[in-house]
Amino acid sequence: MGNSIRPVSENVSYIATDNTWIESKAIQQLQTTANLPNMVSVVGMPDLHPGRGYPIGAAFFSTQHFYPALVGNDIGCGMSLFQTDINVRKLSLDKFEKQLLTLSDIASYEWLNEYVPENMQEHEFVTSLSSIGGGNHFAEFQSIDKIIDNELFSKSGLDKKNALLLVHSGSRGLGQSILQRHIEQHGHNGLDSNSLDAMSYLNAHQDALHFAELNRQLISLRMLQHVHALGEMKLDINHNLVEAYTFKGIDGWLHRKGATPADRGMVIIPGSRGDYSYLVAPQASDKSLHSLAHGAGRKWMRTECKGRLSHRYTPLQLARTNLGSRVICANKQLIYEEAPQSYKSIETVIESMKNAELINVIARLKPILTYKTSGEFA
User: Where, in this chain's numbering, is Mn(2+) 2 bound (predicted)?
Assistant: First the structure.
């Protein structure tokens, strides 16, 4: 296990092999975060990369206080996996792409009125429900490319003949509004967990978690309706959240920023939009703060991607991947920012977690078609 667990200081470590791309700035941000009052332990995952002040792809455990700024502005961001009834062998990719090119980024008021639960109809951000959003969010149809552990796969409830739909999205503008309100009142300071302000934040945080989970369900429903298919949710897990937690017998608060919980059953670790994803069974460990990577992790800053790639690839070329999949992304800036070249290799991320004995790999999933945006902005 020691080969992949890299200690930085007494309470800071990160998970990586020699092949894993880890920026020094991200490690510096781990150390900065570890110096916050009441911070006990900080662990960077193999997809660790620098964020705006705080690292992404990391877990943080504190006592007595928790830090909304560590969770960030997309509370409840996570992954949902749906088993569809789309037979992979019978699928015409050209026809499938043509169908999804006509999907709107946002739902009509009529659709929302019909499918949003009654108790959410008056929500301030109801019009954002069933929308993916920008950045690294996506909805991706996938096939089961390779089964690695037959026994575990048999327990997954997945059908290898039919396509899967993986949805990555969060709480949209709701999470941003919650963080903004906190920063206006408290800056980046933490909250005393026994205070009224802490209770207020946690109530809003819970609302955002519920909103994000519902949003992913509605994204899948609207997409599957559009291609005349059915689907069933097989897993759903948030990777941006804070929760009460007991770590090594100590009661406190576990923050996850781009870190997948390792104590809730099977999870998906997706690659970039031209790479494989992996279905894995976590092995919960204190050394990783019971967390895993949430994806491949960025290698390049968004601002530099187009400059690095535009002389080599057109947007149309980036919409066709080396694995034969398609990408629908009408935003010509975003398609460069989300190009596979701007992300780490998912294989090195998986290798790091395997070497640290944090996961058992169940299956490898191959992208068929990734939907990001039709060009509208929700």
Answer: 168, 239
The model's pLDDT over 345-367, given as tens digits with 9 standing for 90+, comes to 999 999 999 999 999 999 999 99
Which domains are present in the chain? 5-373 (3.90.1860.10)
Whether residue 74 is annotated as binding a ligand: the answer is yes
311 annotated as a binding-site residue: no
> 98-104 — which CB contacts under 8 Å span 24+ positions?
99/226, 99/227, 100/223, 100/226, 100/227, 100/328, 100/369, 100/371, 101/328, 101/374, 102/226, 102/374, 103/222, 103/223, 103/226, 103/371, 103/374, 104/374, 104/376
Amino acid (1-letter code) at residue 150:
N
d(CA 281, CA 148): 12
- Annotated ligand binding at 372? The verdict is yes
Q: What is the pLDDT of residues 248-304, one digit of tens each?
A: 999 999 999 999 999 999 999 999 988 999 999 999 899 999 999 999 999 889 999
Pairing of strands 359-373, 138-147: antiparallel
- Catalytic, out of 182, 205, 255, 294: 294
What span, in angstroms and rounded, lies between the C-alpha atoms of 3 and 131?
41
294 is catalytic: yes
Contact call for residues 253 and 62 (beta carbons, < 8 A): yes
